[in-house]
Amino acid sequence: MVQDNQNEKDNFLYPRNRYYGEVKVENLIFNANLQEFSHKVGYITALETSGKLSSDEAYKQIKTLWKQLKRSKKELLIGKEPPIVP
User: Fold this and answer.
1) Cβ distance 21 to 31 under 8 Å?
2) Rg for the chain (alpha carbons), in Å?
């Protein structure tokens, strides 16, 4: 019973949408990273809007998250064609 409530809470706070692209492990991982980025940016902007976080601090946090997302894309080789082996 307690576990069910926790699952409902997690689904509400951290919703996950299904992936519609080409099903490859690296695409699925990047999609999960992208959704996490989106959720965190939403929280940061809400904190900034409510006055709990300064604009500068919100910008710095979002910039850090963006760099992490870019790094994950680069490490997963998303958007790069594999070399053609003859």
Assistant:
1) yes
2) 17
Structure tokens at 52: 């709990």
Other C-beta atoms within 10 Å of 78: how many? 16
The answer to whether 48 and 55 are in contact (CB under 8 A) is: yes
Find the length of the chain. 86
d(CA 28, CA 21): 9
Q: Helices in 1-86 by DSSP H: which ranges?
A: 2-13, 25-49, 55-75
pTM of the full predicted structure?
A: 0.76
Mean pLDDT by 10 residues, the chain (86 residues): 73 73 90 94 97 98 98 90 63
DSSP secondary structure letter of residue 86: -
